[in-house]
Amino acid sequence: MNSVRQYRASLLIVGFIVITTFVYSSVFAYEKEGLLTVAFLDVGQGDAIFIETPRGNQMLIDGGRNASVLRELSKVMSFSDRTIDVVMASHPDADHIAGLIGVFNRYVVGAYFDPGVMHDTAEYKTLLEKVHEEGVTVTHARKGTKIYLDKEVYVDILFPDRDVSRVETNLGSIVLRVVYRETEILLTGDSPKSIEEYLVSRDGNALGSDILKVGHHGSKTSSAEDFVKAVNPEYAIISAGKDNSYGHPHKEVVELLKSRGIRTMSTGDMGTIVFESDGLSLVYKKR
Fold first, then answer.
1. Which has the minimum average pLDDT: 29-33, 40-44, 144-148, 217-221?
2. Residue 174 has pLDDT above 60, yes or no
3. How far apart are CA 21 and CA 169, in angstroms?
4. At a CB cut-off of 8 Å and minimum separation 6, what does 75 contact?
5. Which residue, 266, 287, 280, 284, is CA-closest to 47?
6. Which helix (H) or strand (E) element contains residue 239?
7. What separation in angstroms does the CA of 71 have from each of 64, 118, 144, 215?
8. Positions of E strands within 49-199
9. Which residue, among 244, 174, 154, has the nearest Cα to 215 in the 3D structure?
10. What is the pTM assigned to this prediction?
11. In this predicted model, what pLDDT tens digit does every residue of 26-36 receive, in sequence order?
12. Is the pLDDT of residue 21 over 70?
């Protein structure tokens, strides 16, 4: 790992790794002072979520199926910015990780996380080759890990809580909460209902969040009613391609969210969806 990457990769992972503090541009930090930005990027039928902390530290979770992620990142990142502190792949399906290959080609990445699910697709093999080529360590995300992106911004890993190397890819999806003071965003990858219900049974009180990124692009295989009730979000975000061949989001999921009074937004209808938080409340930023 070169010195630039080491400098940008500094973060504290509670119980695992202790490194140094982040460096950021004072001018850019002044412009964003106090605000956390979360952008659900329009990458068609896939997932990509970009996070930027009040001090300008950045995390990308998933990268969609193709180079669309690079186009959308250019809209939410400074033109001169060629670093991303943390990249995470929720699970190794192509619609979540193929675009990350281009991300590693264009940006200097500080740290890389995935769930450790074994997968033999060409896209996943190429991604891991690129990660190693760039000298970035692969870390398997596990429950109990907290990744501090900023003084008051951290990522809390809720699942996996075990070795998932040999499970089906969706079953091994990383589930996490992004926490900034009193605001929370819950991201679930493609976790199916069985995992959602397991999380509720294990500690449903820890799931409450202002925003829920709806599992599996709004498929009826995710969004168990008890899970949605436990999260009780104000907003639900569906990341899916417009008029996709899978029929996402499924009617059952849309009706469930509507019945609970949850404001539902889809990247297929709205393009990239951006929220900002001052630590007390989340605000949708109309573009």
1. 29-33
2. yes
3. 34
4. 272
5. 266
6. none
7. 12, 29, 34, 24
8. 49-52, 58-61, 83-88, 108-114, 138-140, 146-150, 153-159, 175-180, 183-187
9. 174
10. 0.89
11. 334 444 678 99
12. no
